[in-house]
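Study this chain:
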Amino acid sequence: SNNRDSAEVILRPFAISPPQHLDMTIAKSVDQDSVRSGDLITYTIKTTNLGPDTTAGFYLLEQLPTGLTIQSVQSNQQNMSVSGDTIRWPGLSLAAGEFVQVELTARVDAPGGAQFEVFTNFVEVFSDADTSYSNNRDSAEVVLRPVPTETDLSLVKRTLTPVLTTGELAEFELIVTNNGPGYSDAFYVTDSLSTHLTFYDFVGQPETSSSRLARWFIPDPMTPGQSLKIQYSALVGENIPQLPDSIYNFAFLTTNGSDSNPANNRRSTSVYVTCNTDCYLDKNVFAPAVDSDLEIHFQPCRTERTPIKIYDMLGTYITTVRDEIFSAGVPQTVFWNGYDNAGQRVGSGAYIIVIGVAPKPCKLKFLLVQ
């Protein structure tokens, strides 16, 4: 249906005596000839006064078929007036050879079926002084491609903050993708949190939500290859029986229509909740020449190897005070005498003590004065 097209030119008669009339002509084209539902297309309409006189008034009649909806109308001339399907330029006149151009953007709203469907729309120019009506009408065609009925929606759930402590916010992301080949039907995305997580904030409010269950309704169809992202945060509870622990939660999607592969509609993820090592110093200003050794107090939240290292403010390693296994919940005290790893006295400045290893070490800052 779209394998043939044409173009027209008009040979004007030669006037021996000064004519007293004019001839308006119109041409219409479209930026694409094959579309799917939801696409935006742009029509270009060019109206020219072939002369020989100047036109004092004219208007266009644009007739979009059902299934196309006008989104915007723009012109290269000022004072354009659009009323329904009529386009006018009050007060505008065109001399012989002059033209006015319109760009009309429309959205394809037709759902499409199993067959190709042709949309033809016409535009006409009207002028009281026009003497030739054969070139006052033109049209453009677009073909609505068939929409496959089968589609596959898939769900991915990601943790954006994989390691946390109690009282912090966990950030999650849900990604729905239409793997094609057809357009998706309306669907729901449901997220269910564990008993140790509580919804805190949403980027895009769900249709319904409680403290641990949220559901988003997506009514608009998704094109093949299109993805949708949902983000939210959840608060990590304080009363987790045993730490560290991995806290799992689930998300799933359901459709109002068919989904060729429901096996990828359910996903889970986890956050690793660890504990904070409690730590403090007996003094914030340490003068090795007059003070006793610096006392470093800490209480591990789990039994594991716990290095205690000192760095300067630029991150340069100074020394390791201790590196051994300490018991969980048992208060510990280690001492530092102000010397580096090579046995040299450390100079005055600010230093940082790091107790434990990533992802949640305890850090203490102090000032050393010689």
